């Protein structure tokens, strides 16, 4: 088979380490009759072994040449193929067709990983779980706690929607071509319907507040959010106005969000 030349425009780094691949399959633990969607099957490092365990796998791949390669494999008959951008794929239509929650996984191209995860959060009610290989920096931002350098808007929005588990550290040498960064394989599982650790009336308001706060990361809240919340209001909400954005918990950001909504302040900003 003709060798595939990785395309920089699609940020292609293919997983080649058999031990890492085996561990990832064990973590995903695919079952018959589940709706599994792989983002970017690439050279089929995960696709092939997963097809040995299930009868149908849905794949979303933007690179047509990679889809053509897949046709040469015996497991191709188990694939439902979408030649599409994962950032515009209609996951809701798939959910309606299958009538069950979707499991999404993949070795994500670094250039779309954050955008894709945020896009999938908008469909969180139809997702059972997500298992992704991510650039280490992105994974650390997702799971970061208040007070750490990695904690920011992405941490807050991600943890609002999901419980996250770091599963595996992956070295650059496990890929071809070898990337400049380390990777982490991570699980994101939406909270059970009877358990939501955080609440806001409108996540768009939470997103707006966190974006505003972290645009001026080094400024204290009294300054970064001063146009919306007076020092008196912050104190009333039990939030220290002299703290920086990275020192405020998700619960506290939800308090700010709900205050804006309950007092009809958000209409001036959203």
From TrEMBL:
HAMAP family: 16SrRNA_methyltr_A
Record: residues binding S-adenosyl-L-methionine: 13, 15, 40, 61, 85, 107
Species this protein is from: Buchnera aphidicola (Aphis helianthi)
Subcellular location: Cytoplasm
Name recorded for this polypeptide: Ribosomal RNA small subunit methyltransferase A
One GO cellular component term: cytosol
Pfam families: RrnaAD
Family: Belongs to the class I-like SAM-binding methyltransferase superfamily. rRNA adenine N(6)-methyltransferase family. RsmA subfamily.
């Amino acid at each position: 088979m003709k060798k595939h030349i990785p395309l920089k425009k699609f940020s292609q780094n293919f997983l080649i380490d058999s031990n890492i691949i085996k561990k990832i399959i064990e973590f995903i633990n695919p079952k018959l009759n589940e709706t599994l969607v792989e983002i970017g099957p690439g050279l089929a490092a995960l696709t092939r072994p997963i097809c040995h365990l299930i009868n149908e796998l849905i794949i979303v791949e933007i690179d047509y040449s990679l889809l053509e390669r897949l046709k040469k494999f015996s497991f191709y008959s188990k694939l439902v193929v979408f030649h599409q951008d994962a950032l515009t794929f209609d996951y809701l239509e798939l959910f309606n067709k299958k009538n069950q929650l979707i499991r999404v996984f993949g070795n994500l191209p670094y250039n779309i990983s954050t955008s894709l995860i945020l896009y999938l959060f908008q469909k969180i009610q139809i997702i059972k779980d997500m298992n992704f290989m991510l650039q280490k920096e992105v994974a650390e931002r997702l799971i970061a706690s208040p007070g750490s350098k990695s904690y920011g808007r992405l941490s807050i929005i991600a943890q609002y929607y999901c419980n996250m588990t770091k599963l595996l550290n992956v070295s650059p040498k496990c890929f071809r071509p070898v990337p400049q960064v380390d990777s982490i394989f991570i699980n994101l599982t939406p909270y059970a319907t009877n358990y939501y650790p955080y609440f806001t009336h409108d996540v768009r308001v939470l997103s707006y507040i966190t974006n505003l706060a972290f645009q001026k990361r080094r400024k204290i809240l009294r300054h970064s959010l001063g146009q919306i919340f007076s020092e008196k209001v912050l104190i009333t909400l039990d939030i220290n106005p002299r703290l920086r954005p990275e020192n405020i918990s998700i619960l506290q950001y939800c308090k700010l969000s709900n205050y804006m909504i309950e007092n009809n302040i958000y209409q001036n900003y959203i």
